Amino acid sequence: MPGIHLSQLTKRYARGEAVVRGVSLTVEDGDFMCLLGPSGCGKTTILRMIAGLEQVSGGEIAIGGRYVDSAARGLFVPAEKRGLGLVFQSYALWPHMTVARNIDFGLRLAKLPTAEREARLVRVMERLRIAGLAERYPGQLSGGQQQRVALARALAVNPGVLLLDEPLSNLDATLRLQMREELSRLHREFGTTIVFVTHDQWEAMTLATRIAVMNGGEVQQVGSPDQIYGQPANRFVAGFIGSPPINMIATGTALADALAGLLGTALPRAAAIGLRPEGIMPMAEPGPGRIALDLRAVLPTGGGWIMELLHASVEGPTLLHAMTHQPPPWRAGQRLHAELRPEALHLFDATGQRIPADGQTPRADRPLAFTSLFRN
Predict the structure, then answer these.
(1) 11 within a domain of the structure (yes/no)
(2) Looking only at Cα atoms, what is the longest distance across the chain?
């Protein structure tokens, strides 16, 4: 399967405003790459440029070592000649065609022999578990079934690259979970290079082999899910990834000084300390290195409990959120004493960039990993 290389990719529209700014990114052969970020960050625009639905304003795109779009070379290969599969947020199924005709539509356009076309149709429908729906029409299908048909249509033509633009956003919570499992299985079985666009961190962290976190038209960090979570490159990545969000504590406060003591480092360059909620471990009794916190509230989430904790100091109370997957035995108003996992602490300078510090980077044998918490 081919890889994708983006070099200094830029996109401007009529007013001259750049929505993608100098993005360089490599999607390796067989990767499941997720473009993750808030609305308006440029992730869908990048996907559309890879697909050939938008032309670059600057930079180049190469797929499988072949340039398909280059402003400097004056080159643009149209979408239908790039050998890609594309599934939109809206599945765009033909309502007047049966499931079978929807799926083999691209095969008919490619003028494949009837025997090969039928063999591919049967194979892809069986692998996507929709063989019994062949004679139904899209209006007779559930949302999850429509999503499988759209994927089957894209996969039937044996694309080298599969592009997915928020394909799960129209599904309810149960179907989204089922389809995440389905996409993960399809990636393992087909080995297709996948580029997946989403604003949902859960989808990115549980599906992707690598993630490119985007903001303001730029890539903030590229890495595995555990790298993105355990070693965020800056304050934006640290705050965007994680639920509940990371606690940010300004330096120059009593709490920051206490955290610095745990890190065993001074804070001459740091402007803020980030503390992951699951790195706070409240206990009833005081002890060496524990920080006194008052429990303000316990919020059940269904799969866990969020604790609102207050740290009192001369600067005023600081609110912290802790996360646990065991029922807390305490009530609001109790004084607790928390141990903190040093690998859950992250330093950031005045520009928001991560500052490596002794004891701050997660140890290889004990990383604080988002996916290790939620992949069971």
Answers:
(1) yes
(2) 79
